[in-house]
Design goal:
mainly alpha
Length: 154
Amino acid sequence: KNCLDPEDPSSVDILKEIIATKYTDPEVAFVKDPEAFLEAQKETGVNAFFTICVSIVESSGGTAWAAIDKSTNNIFSIKDGNNGWAKYSSLKDAVTKFGELISKGSYYWQVGKYTVREIGPTYCERVANSSEQWEDKVVKYWTELLEKAQELGY
């Protein structure tokens, strides 16, 4: 069965169950508001698991705020175009805008970059002399979540 159908109200419970196998901190964005990730998937077509995994890589799911002020709700480390950080009115707004950036922005889907491996080098600068790049981290977390879903029978 498809475990994350944004049209199916039970998907929120399924997503919560999958997330709870690994993440329990109530301050983690996708623990706090899994609905925002499914709604963004419905609105933009960007997979909720992908969005969750990017938030893990960029800000530990909205719990690590070393470089960006927490009040910005910018869990994806998105720049504002003026060498600053984008600011969002809410977590839901940030998640939706991330989905729009990927699906409608001029750097990703609009130019044929659909996979994590294609999106990665544009989304995040390469780390010199590193065996693990941004997309490797996203894939690692995504694989972990999908394995948890499979263990739960989804």
